[in-house]
Known about the structure:
The chain is an alpha+beta fold. It contains five helices and six strands. The strands form two sheets. A three-stranded antiparallel beta sheet has the order 1-5-6, covered by helices on one side. A hairpin with a 2-residue loop joins strand 3 and strand 4. Helix 1 crosses helix 2.
Amino acid sequence: MSTDTSSTSTDPAISGNLAASLRGIIDATSAATAADATKASVVFRATGVGDSGVATDIQIRSHQVQVDEPPSLGGVDSAPNPVETALAGLLSCQVVTYRFWAAKLNIPLDDVRIETEGDLDVRGFLGLRDGVRPGLGTVRVKVRLTGSASPEQYEQLRAAVDQHCPVLDLFANPTPVSTELVTG
């Protein structure tokens, strides 16, 4: 895999404090949603506007993000491209989900290092060949976990993460999408 990796702290004291903090969030959310199920629904938003060339300026809460393409796809390579940001979204959601589920299952976890990689046939994107998907055909995720847990515990953790990671779910399952065109 050639993608950059994401890493978290390997300091056991920080890992322990993080696990305790995450368990607190899980407990508080569990209590709040048990009392009122409507509190479980969250809406996430991003807005964007085309910048020069094929770049896009994106606003996510108070964060500014830019997306561009490499020159081979019409950009100037000023930022990651949309597919790379999707893979980064998967990678980062995996890190978060590993941390939360390690805390929930009381599995010691010192470090999470993840690599994502995906195969895309640009003929689908450019409409050069019928029947070729415009999106990723295959995605590979490589996860390295370190800590004092047994291999069986880490396999239990992996299974929980695969079942509960929101962005992995987006990649693995059809998600209804509606598009509204506003002109003028």
